[in-house]
Amino acid sequence: MARKPIQFRLNGKDEAVFVEEGQNLLDALRRQVGDTSPKYGCGQGTCGACTVLVDGEPRLSCLMLAESAEGASIETTAGLAGAELHPLQRAFLDGFAAQCGYCTSGMLMSAKALLDRNPSPTREQVVDAISGNICRCTGYEPIIDAILDAAARGAGRRSA
Amino acid sequence: MAKHRGRGVATINYPIGMNLGGDPSQALVHSNPDGKFGVALSSIDLGQGMKSVTRQIAAETLGVPVEDVYVDTADSDTGPHCMGSFASRGTHRVGNAVIAAAKEARAVMLEAAAEELEVNPEDLETDGKGNIHVKGAPSRSISTGAACAAAQFKQGRTVSGRGIFLIPLSDVDPDTGEMTPVSCFAHAALVVEVEVDDETGELSVVEMNSAYELGRALNPKLVEQQLVGGAWMGLSHAAFETTEPYYPEREHGPVDYNGYPMPGPGDIAPHNISVLERPAPDGPYGGKGPGEMCANPVLPAVANAVFNAVGIRVDTLPITPERILRGLKAQGGARPQARR
Ligand code: FES
Ligand code: FES
Question: Do strands B271-276 and B203-213 pair parallel, antiparallel, or not at all (unpaired)?
Fold first, then answer.
C-alpha cells in the first residue's frame, strides 16, 4: 500500500511519520509515533476513549484519517503533565475518578477542551462535554466532580 | 397522560465468595535486601482496587510502611494460584491469604532483627515506619531494611512467607440438603425514587438512598468508589442493558455500543450512601468487600418503584419503555399505588 509522509505537531513537538492510506489517526499515534495515551475502545466513534485535541477541538482519533492531520497541532494525555500533573489529572487522582482507567485519557481530553474554552462550566456543561465518553466503572459522578474541582482550581485559565 | 412518581425498596443478603469444590487463594511474600517487600498474587485488579487493598493488608501485617510494599499480580503463569477476581471474593479470600503470608515473613524478619540486636524475637515490635525495636526500649532498634539485608547477606535466611486461605468444599447432607456454602455475608438496603411517563414509557431515576454493611471498609474511598459505580451498573442493568433487546433471534442482537444502550453521564441520579461497618470475624482486619453487591439491590428496587408508580409488574429485565408501555396497555392505563 502506498505510504504517505505527514507532519504535525504533537504536544508541542514536531513529528514526521509515514502513514498508510486510510489509516486512522489513533492507529498512527499509537503505532507510528508510539504515543499510546489515546486508547482504542470501539474503533467506530461511540466510546470516546480515543479522544485527542486537534487544533484545540476534541476529535475522535479513530474516526479521523491520519493524513488529514497534516499540519495540525495535536494534544494527547501524554502531553498534559509538565513538571507537575495538570490540574485535571490532579483532580482525577484526588477525586478517585478512575477505576480501570480505560476511559480516563479520553475523559481528560474532553474535559480539557471544555475548560480551555469555558474555565468555569456548570455541572450541565460538564455532563454535556463528556456525554460522548463512556465509562464502565465509575458511574460518572466522580468524573463530573473532578472536572468541576479542576475548574475551581483554575485548570481552564492555566491552559487557556 | 402524566408522569408518575414511585418509590421502591430492596434489601439483600449477599454471600462473599463461592463454594464450587472449595474456594482457595494463595499469596507469596518476600523481602528484597533493601527491606522492600514484594507480594505475588494471581488475583487480577480490574480497577476495583485489589492491589491497593492487598498492599495495605500486607503492610499492616508486616509492620512496614505501605510505600515499602509492592504487589505484583502480573503473571498467572508464575504467580501462586488464585480462583480469580469474581464472586466478590477478592478482599476476603485474598486478603486472608496475604495476612498468612505476611505473618510468616514478618516472623523471619523479626528473627533476623533479633539476631542482630542480640535479643529474643518475642521482645521485638515494629513501629510501622520502617523500624524494629525492643519493646519498651525504642532506642534499641534496627531498620527493617537493615534486618532484611542482614538476613540476606550475613545470616543466609529468606525473609519470606507463604499464605493460603481456603473455604473448603461443603458437602450437601443427602437427607436434609443442608450445607454451609459460605462463611460470610454482606448486606444492603436501597430505596429508589423513579418517575415513569405513561405516554412514552420512559423511566428515569430521581434519587437513590442506600445503606451497605460490608465489614470494615479497609479503604473507605475505594469502597465509596465501588458503591457509586456499582449502583450505576445496577441501574444500567435495570433499565438499559441487554444483548437481546427486541428480537427472538440472537443474530439481531447488538454488536456494538450503537445498539447496546447504557446510561450516560446525563442519566445518573443523586445517590446518598451510608456505609455501616461491622467487622467480619473471619475477614482480613474485618473486611468483607463490596464487590457485586454494589449493583444488586438496584434492580429489584427499580422494579418495585415502577410498580409503585404505575401499578405494573415488569418481570423481565431490562425495564425498557417498550415493556412499560405493553404493561400499561394490558392494564388499561396507569394505576399509581399508595405512596410508601
Ligand atoms: S475508539 Fe474512538 S470512539 Fe471508541
Ligand atoms: S474507569 Fe473504567 S471505564 Fe472509566
Answer: parallel
B15 - beta bridge partners?
A: B185
Between CA B191 and CA B209 the distance in angstroms is: 5
Question: Mean pLDDT, consecutive 10-residue segments, chain B of 340 residues?
Answer: 95 90 94 94 92 97 97 89 92 97 98 98 96 95 97 97 94 92 92 98 97 96 94 95 76 85 91 95 94 94 98 95 96 91
Q: List, in order of start, the domains of chain A with CATH numbers.
A: 3-79 (3.10.20.30), 87-152 (1.10.150.120)
| CATH number given to B3-15+184-331 | 3.30.365.10
Q: How many residues appear in chain B? A: 340
- Which residues of chain A lie closer than 8 angstroms to B222, CB-CB? 96
pLDDT tens-place string over residues A67-118: 999 999 999 999 999 999 999 999 999 999 999 999 999 999 999 999 999 9
| Domains B3-15+184-331 and B19-165 in one fold | yes
- Pairwise CA distance, residues B94 & B26, whole Å: 7
Hey, what's the cell of A144? 463530573
Contacts of B86 (CB under 8 A, 6+ apart): none
The answer to whether the beta carbons of residues A129 and A113 sit under 8 Å apart is yes
| B175 class by beta-carbon count within 10 Å (0-12 exposed, 13-18 middle, 19+ buried) | exposed
Calpha distance B305→B297 (Å, rounded) = 12
User: Helices A104-117 and A87-94, interaxial angle, to 10°?
Assistant: 130
Pocket of ligand 2 (CB under 6 A): A 98-103, 135-138; B 47
User: What pLDDT does residue A159 have?
Assistant: 47
Mean pLDDT, rounded, of chain A: 95
Give A42's contacts in chain B (Cβ within 8 Å): 256-257
CB-based contact A130 B265, cutoff 8 Å: yes
ipTM for the complex shown: 0.89
